[in-house]
Amino acid sequence: MALQKYFSQNFSLDYRSLAAFRMLYGFLLIIDIVNRGIYLEAHYSNNGVVSIEIASTLKHYLHFCLHFLSGESGFITLLFFLQILMALMIVIGYRTKLFVLLSFIFLVSLHCRNSLILDSGDNVLKVMLFWSIFIPIATKFSFDSLLRKNKSTIEKNTISNIGTFAFILQLLSIYIVTGFLKTGENWIDGTAVYYTLQLDTYTTFMGDWLGKQDLLCKFLNYLTLLIEKTFWLLIFIPFKWQLFRVICVAIFMLLHIGFALNMHLGIFPLICIFAWVALLPPLFWDKVLRFQAFNKLIAIVRVRGNNCFKFLFRKRIIEKRYFSDFSQSIKSQIIVCVLLLSVIGWNAAKLKLIDLPKSISNFVILMNLNQSWSMFAPQPYKSDGWYIAKAIRSDGLAIDLFTNSPVSYLKPSDVSDTYLNQRWRKYFTNLYQPKNEKYRGALVRYLRNRYEKQIAKTGVFIETVELVYMREKTLPNYEIPKIDKITLWKYWKDEKYKTNFK
Q1: Cβ-based neighbours of 449, under 8 Å, separated by 6 or more
Q2: What are phi and psi of 340, to 5 degrees?
Q3: Which residue in 13, 129, 33, 88 sits closest to 367, CA to CA?
């Protein structure tokens, strides 16, 4: 009985926290799609840097990918529109389980379409969305709760089962694995944060300043290791568990706020912070609800939600029918057990604690629960840089296809600003790696075609293109780094230019 009580309290989730998580993740899915849509043609069409032919050669685990059906921008736009609609259904909590499942399928397909622009945030979003299928995230503040016939069946604000256990364990495993993978000498000698904040590709204005504070960098180095390796244990403390849960959530939220202030990481910090929202215990809401302003806000949301629900039902846009939550069934719990044990095995294998049988590894991959948490592990990169696409026009003018201005090999005042957004930043980081050499030609073709469309009426065309990476190696003790000019790819419109192209 004592063990059952411990499990029911320490691995419980508050329905209000789950509702907040649902709405926040729904909005995140919309933000993610909108951000991707800005450069839809470049990243997802056959006219961009990763055509379907190229994407099919990238490492992925799907036998069937919806986004491989067509490389036309119109088709991808349609899929993006459907994903936004599904995310909206998650926000309002209508047929939530169905739309979470569909959103997961579409998200995995989207990731498969262009893996060169993915980061760790995509991994977190994918797995947390998956596990939310098996927990009641629509019990509160949702259309599904209004459709539920017997509203009196919910007698308390929390739920604990194998689904909540899996959700919590998945979130904690992100920090456990990445913390214990940080085994490089830089993490041990306290210089990892220093090297990380010398990566101009990622650092913000605050990160540039912090990177010059040697003692503070060392302190943050060991503090990061301490938090990732040990602070998750606060979740397991049996006494005053709600207080320790709030402290734990606050610490990890602050950790990601710190990351966001010092590095350009896209929506990765928000993905993690919003995942931690689901773990807020009843104590938090009991304290927050004492504020009259917050109560008024909830009342407004509830009234507007009810009015919206009645309007949609009256217009027959939604069906007034309740679909039972299958996540509470015995079959569902058995499925979660099997999946959770497989994922635990996968992460244990990443830490080299066990040798995972091939059959289990294939099963995890089949379920698209394969995950990697090697963020700045075993140690951070010690070089980064910026790109130049030197093009020689038919009239003899040399320009940089990235900026449409004269070629300059000088270091930009802010390297991070040379990347249009986090997707492009990740794409160019991956493109430099030798294993992705064969994908560089597609970038050159895209840049050339884009520029020639802009100058089509002039009769001028591109004769040659040289894709250059200006690599800056990070040296210890703030030494002035050496910059190397590395040619990654060359294009000639005519073979005769090969002999005198420099």
Answers
A1: 47
A2: -65, -45
A3: 129
Chain centre distance of CA 209: 26
Question: Going edge to edge, which strands form the sheet with 383-393?
Answer: 405-406, 398-400, 383-393, 462-473, 483-492
DSSP state of 263: B
For residue 37, what are the CA distances in angstroms to 47, 79, 330, 423? 15, 11, 40, 11
Amino acid at 262: N
Span between the terminal Cα atoms of the chain, in Å: 77
In this structure, the strands spanning 462-473 and 13-14 are: unpaired
DSSP 322: -
Strands of 303-461, DSSP E: 383-393, 398-400, 405-406
Q: What one-letter code names the amino acid at 327?
A: S
DSSP helix/strand/coil, 77:
helix
Cβ partners under 8 Å of residue 40, min gap 6: 73, 76, 77, 80
**78-132, pLDDT tens digit by residue?**
999 999 999 999 999 999 999 999 999 999 999 999 999 999 999 999 999 999 9
> Alpha-carbon distance 86 to 312, whole Å?
16
Beta bridge partners of 14: 158
Among the listed residues 32, 168, 159, the one whose alpha carbon sits nearest the alpha carbon of residue 103:
32
Reading the block at residue 290, the tokens are 């004492």
All residues at 6 or more sequence positions from 100 whose CB lies less than 8 Å from its CB, including other chains? 90, 129, 132, 133, 137
Closest-CA residue to 374 (of 184, 146, 217): 184
pLDDT, position 499: 41
Per mean pLDDT, which range of 42-51, 141-150, 425-434 is the poorest? 141-150
**Rounded CA separation 472/460 (Å):** 34
Find out whether 21 and 93 touch, Cβ atoms under 8 Å. no
SS3 at position 381: coil
Average per-residue pLDDT for the chain = 90
Tokens found for residue 270: 């928000």
Could you tell me the two tokens for 459? 């009769």
How large is the average pLDDT for residues 187-215? 96
Q: Which of 14-23, 171-180, 233-242, 317-326 has the lowest mean pLDDT?
A: 317-326
Which residues does 415 contact at the CB level (< 8 Å), separation at least 6? 200, 201, 384, 385, 386
Q: 366 near 356, Cβ under 8 Å?
A: no
Question: Residue 396 is which amino acid?
Answer: G
Residue 212 gets which letter from DSSP? T
pLDDT value at position 297? Answer: 73
- Are 487 and 432 spatial neighbours (Cβ–Cβ below 8 Å)? no
pTM: predicted TM-score of the whole model, two decimal places: 0.92
